[in-house]
Input
Amino acid sequence: MKQYLELCNYVLEHGVRKEDRTGTGTISVFGYQMRMNLQDGFPLLTTKRVPFRLVATELIWFLKGDTNLRYLLEQNNHIWDEWGFQKWVESKEYTGPDMTNFGLRSQEDPEFEQLYKQQLAIYQQRVLEDDRFAEQFGDLGNVYGKQWRSWEGADGQVYDQIQYIIDEIKRNPDSRRLLCNAWSASELKNQQLPPCHYAFQFYVHDGKLSCMFQMRSNDVFLGLPFNIASYALLTHLIAHECNLEVGELIYTGADVHIYSNHIEQVQTMLEREPRALPTLKLNPELKSIFDVEWDDLELIGYDPHPPIKAHVAV
Output
């Protein structure tokens, strides 16, 4: 993953200061690409620990076509909590302490941070236990799972883009239409967070499956290591179902940025020496990508440096 560290250095050296939706501020570059050979190992960052279980259960959530946080909370996966929480605290139903700009305020005010954690815990428990609440405030709208598995076309039909890709690989591996698109202009108002990784495409050559994914906006420190691992896992799963080996994973980013409150963490990470990549083992009995569960995945030889904590910008 030396390429990822080179990207971090590039953004620090060439990035420009930009404001952003969250009010945090970033150092940003426009346009960057990395190519990773998946035959060299599973590209999970080693200069800090990246929780593979969270990467995998999030992808499984997408593949289920799910958009409700309940599944993720049942898996003890909290990487999307803040967006559902925001939906609740901005509603008329919320009557607790003022949570305006909770993302920034929780970083700057320890007393407020405790209030925020209390309200977030209430939110999480209600999503898990209250069906009505979960339906109203646990659903994030037409985000990745919906777009991947139930794309609504202008013709009024619903399309499963992942199933189409798998079927097309099997019948026509040279197809240039092995593409999934999550960006729908008409759906943006119904999405708690518009897709950051908005499209991906597959390519078959010499018995190997390669994937290129595109990102309109990319948090380099927290988001990108997850994105790389997620699309590597997706490529492994589709290759497994289609009896192919894995090839390359290609990342193309547009607004590639480091948040201003992540700079110290990035610098700490850059002082560390990368370690050997792990390998991924899939359950050989797994037949369909849509049946995959956490127990079907085994990561072998992952020996990263310790985790580095940082606040997510909401």
Remarks:
- The two ends are 27 Å apart (CA to CA).
- Residues 2-66+158-300 form a domain with the Thymidylate Synthase; Chain A fold (CATH 3.30.572.10).
- The longest strand covers residues 245-259.
- The CA atoms of residues 27 and 272 lie 22 Å apart.
